[in-house]
Design brief:
Structural class: alpha/beta
Shape: globular
Helix content: 40-55%
Distance between the termini: 27 Å
Low-confidence stretches: none
Largest sheet: 6 strands, mixed
Strand content: 25-35%
Oligomer: single chain
Radius of gyration: 18 Å
Order of helices and strands: EHEEEHEHEHEHHEHHEEHEHEHE
Mean pLDDT: 92
Length: about 280
């Protein structure tokens, strides 16, 4: 059954494939390059990427080709969509929105390209809200409003073992990377105004992760929220964080644990964790 509004996103939304299939969401793949080898990030094995990062190989990411967006939009138009809502990672972190806008000008159906100014499951939960509104028969204004409600109210919290990978990719300054490595201080980060920003720090990984949980619980408060725990090559640590959050937050509507996309993993590095607190 066709929907009035089709939903498109990119792979930094970190949504599990079974969920995007269920919701009818089309996902354009960010490109990951390791040395001279380039592929869609969904086809980049995590162990291969982890080894490349630890071996200090040249690892970079790039937006989806505009052709990927064009065919996504053209397919939605052919399926009877009256409009398309295309939700994407912040322009402060990627040029994905620009690729989407170039493709949007090549199709007849109206395409609303949204720079969410965030990434990870803050983007992912906005996509879920938009797709749910579309499945309920909502028009494009209702779908956009559902997504924007989530984007405005979401918090993205990030723990990294080291700032080295963010510094390598130009997502954080060299001085900040050096500061983060001093005295075994472990940084906590957030996404603010579309960019990675420092939030807090703690001495040692255990204390930093505990502080991450406490900050997330404080952001959630007593409100009904959705929580996502994201990780890159840190499944056991993510499971521990999930259980701690379950114990602290009785009003969570939905818990989700997911490995971040390889494109995000390339910048945060092995051992990284994220917690998304999203409004219902």
């Amino acid at each position: 059954m066709s929907r009035r509004v089709a939903i498109v996103t990119d792979s930094t939304a970190c949504l599990p494939p079974q969920l995007t299939e269920k919701l009818g969401v089309t996902v354009a793949q960010i490109q990951v390059r390791i040395g001279d080898w380039v592929d869609d990030e969904v086809r980049v094995p995590v162990p291969k990427l982890v080894d490349a990062l630890r071996d200090r190989l040249d690892v970079t990411t790039a937006p989806p080709d505009p052709g990927a967006f064009f065919w996504s939009y053209a397919d939605a138009e052919a399926a009877g969509a009256e409009a398309i809502v295309s939700l994407h990672v912040s322009t402060g972190l990627s040029q994905t929105v620009e690729a989407a806008r170039r493709a949007a000008g090549q199709v007849r159906v109206p395409v609303h390209v949204v720079d969410t100014r965030t990434c990870g499951m803050s983007l992912g939960y906005a996509v879920v809200a938009a797709a749910t509104a579309a499945a309920a028969g909502g028009d494009v204004n209702r779908v956009l409003a559902a997504a924007q409600h989530v984007v405005r109210g979401s918090t993205e919290l990030i723990y990294v073992d080291t700032l080295e990978y963010l510094q390598r990719g130009g997502r954080i300054g060299r001085a900040a990377a050096l500061l983060g490595s001093a005295l075994s201080m472990k940084p906590l980060l957030t996404v603010a105004e579309g960019r990675i920003a420092p939030l807090d720090k703690a001495l040692g990984a255990e204390r930093a992760v505990r502080k991450l949980v406490d900050i997330a619980a404080g952001k959630a408060g007593r409100d009904a929220v959705d929580i996502a725990v994201e990780h890159f090559d840190a499944a056991e640590r993510a499971g521990t964080v999930l259980e701690q959050l379950r114990a602290k937050l009785p009003n969570v509507r939905r818990f989700l644990v997911t490995q971040v996309s390889s494109a995000i993993g390339a910048h945060v590095g092995p051992g990284a964790l994220g917690v998304t607190v999203s409004p219902v």
